[in-house]
């Protein structure tokens, strides 16, 4: 699913919440998200009824790279990007090494406008980055970019790498709010994950 802005990553509504729930967008019973996105974030959610698969996809021991397209306030300098790559201290714990690079203009220009639109300041430029992580702490990307002086304005999870040599699962051909069933090939790849052992955690630069 391509989760829109303003939707909780759960199928139950919260009392007095201004956010939608997934039940307002997906009419498939018995599924739940493997991982989550904050209501103010957008992008790829994998929905499953398989508890073992949900655990497999979200356990950081397995090191699935999750790639985010991130619009930040300001123009990054090399030292800020390198700090993100090496890891920064967020809530008294250093983040794992990340992959960080500028997002190509063709990618971010093809994105639809967010609804409601991002608020920007005329005097401050914005920049799009591609950031890949193997962990998913609470509001991690936003906290990381803020730590190096680049506040996040818009956050979109674009893809999840199954680490099996095949193409990552991504938002390609999914508009905001749309969802689709996995293909037979994707189903086979996902089920194969349950037979693979965890990878040892590495502290080296990816």
Q: Number of helix segments?
A: 5
The overall average pLDDT, rounded, is: 93
- What is the beta-strand fraction? 15-25%
Which superfamily, in CATH terms, is the homologous superfamily of the largest domain? Answer: Pseudouridine synthase I, catalytic domain, N-terminal subdomain
End-to-end gap: 28 Å
**Largest sheet: number of strands, sense, barrel closure:** 7 strands, mixed
Helix content: 10-25%
Helix-and-strand structural type: alpha+beta
| Contiguous runs where pLDDT drops below 50 for at least 5 residues | 202-206
Q: How would the global form be characterised?
A: globular
The first-level CATH class name of the largest domain:
Alpha Beta
What fold name stands as the CATH topology of the largest domain? Alpha-Beta Plaits
Q: Tell me the domain tally.
A: 2
Radius of gyration computed on alpha carbons: 17 Å
- The number of strands is 11
The ordered string of helix (H) and strand (E) elements is EEEEHEHEEEHEHEEH
Q: Identify the CATH architecture of the largest domain.
A: 2-Layer Sandwich
């Amino acid at each position: 699913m391509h989760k829109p802005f303003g939707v909780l990553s759960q199928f139950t509504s919260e009392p007095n919440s201004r956010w939608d729930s997934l039940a307002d967008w997906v009419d498939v019973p018995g599924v739940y998200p493997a991982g989550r996105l904050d209501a103010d974030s957008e992008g790829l959610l994998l929905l499953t009824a398989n508890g073992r698969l949900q655990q497999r996809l979200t356990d950081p021991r397995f090191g699935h790279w999750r790639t985010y397209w991130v619009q930040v306030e300001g123009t990054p300098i090399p030292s800020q990007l390198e700090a993100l790559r090496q890891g920064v201290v967020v809530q008294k714990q250093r983040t794992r090494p990340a992959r960080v690079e500028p997002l190509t203009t063709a990618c971010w220009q093809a994105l639809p406008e967010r609804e409601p639109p991002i608020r920007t300041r005329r005097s401050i430029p914005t920049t799009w980055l591609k950031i890949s992580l193997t962990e998913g702490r609470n509001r991690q990307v936003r906290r990381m970019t803020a730590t190096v002086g680049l506040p996040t304005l818009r956050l979109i999870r674009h893809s999840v790498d199954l680490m099996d040599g095949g193409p990552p699962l991504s938002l390609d051909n999914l508009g905001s709010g749309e969802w689709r069933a996995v293909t037979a090939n994707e189903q086979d790849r996902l089920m194969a994950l349950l037979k693979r052992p965890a990878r040892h955690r590495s502290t080296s630069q990816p």
